[in-house]
Amino acid sequence: MLDLVLPTECGGCAAPGTRWCEACATALRVGADEPLLITPRVDPGVPVFALGRHAGARRTAVVAMKEHGRRDLRAPLSTALADGIDRLLCWGVLELPLTVVPAPTRWLSARRRGGDPVTLLARAAVGAAPGVVVVPALRTAARVRDSVGLSAGARERNLSGRIRLIRRPPPEEVLLVDDIVTTGATAAESVRVLAAAGVQVVAVLTLAYA
């Protein structure tokens, strides 16, 4: 009866009868050569890695989680993020102990979405992993505009001086994580703010790149 009123469908491809199908799980699986090293238009000054393109099941799942309240999709997305962190540790890009800092989300967006999706994903990905902690250290100013539709230059101007450090991370290596990197403006300003406070950001990791 519940499926008749609220039909269950896959958060990646809309296949009926399941919330996350095997095909979409396969599409989100971290391959042997992933995360990918990418070059965003705005250089944050540290390596930027992404788990895949912002397309297909990955894009649909991220949008459904953020904009349509599909909280059940945090599990597969956070699993992919956790695998990406593990891979960077195996490659020697990261070392333990490690602090994961979520990229900041606009306060109004976080409130509308029932919480900051990046922080929630980071916490689910890290779980109780030894030597890894999540510290929500950054916040955007209230006057920051939604970045959708803005050019790379406009995104930089929109964020310049408008990301603040609200909590100092431990004196360990820091990995900045985000859901999507588009131009790199958010990552660049976040890294700049952390570096100005003496925090060593060694890399950026995102679920997707556009």
From TrEMBL:
SUPFAM superfamilies: PRTase-like. Signal peptide: none annotated. InterPro entries: ComF/GntX_DNA_util-trans, PRTase-like. Gene3D superfamilies: 3.40.50.2020. It comes from the Bacteria. This is ComF family protein. It comes from Mycolicibacterium brumae.
